Every structure is written in C-alpha cells, then in structure tokens.
Amino acid sequence: MIVRIFSETQYRLDESHHAKLDELDDVIVAAVDADDEDKFHESFEELLDYVRKNGAALGDDELEASDFILPPADLSFAEAAEEFTGEGLIPDPPAATA
C-alpha cells in the first residue's frame, strides 16, 4: 500500500502494516474526541514516525496513487478536529477470509 504524508513524500508499506496504522489512527481520533491536545500531538507523531520507519520512501521519479493521505506534521489541533473524525483517515483493514 502507498501512504503519502502531505508535504513530504510517499511511502510503500506492506499490507501487513494496515492494522497497526488503523490502530494508531483510532488513538488519534479518540484524543481529538476527548479534546486532549497533548495526546493528539503525541499520537499523530507516532503515526507519522511509524510510516517513516516502516515504509520505503518512493523516489522523486516515482508517483503512485496513494491508498492513504496523512496530513502534514505541522497539523494543528484545530485542523485535526476536522480531519480525524468518525473512523479517522485509515479505515479498518479488510477482514481476512478463512
């Protein structure tokens, strides 16, 4: 899957990371819902760091459709209240078929 961090670059991550990204996204939504700005900043930075550390940055000459687009690192708490609502930016991964 391809994840773009707005104003940075795109990262290729294996689909096995989808559940962890969703989990981190859910923590951010909960922090915003609870009006906990400190927890939001901590959790949002954790999400961005996870993508950066576990993804392979695409080269400048590679441009692929992004599966998920994350806001820039300098996203304000007020802006987050508009972005991280409901299920957040990363929906639940598809259920595994038996």
TrEMBL record:
Question: Which Pfam family, just one, is annotated for this protein?
Answer: PspAA
Q: Where is the PspA-associated domain?
A: 1-92
Source domain of life: Bacteria
InterPro entries to which the protein is assigned, alphabetical: PspA-assoc_dom
Q: What is this protein called?
A: PspA-associated domain-containing protein
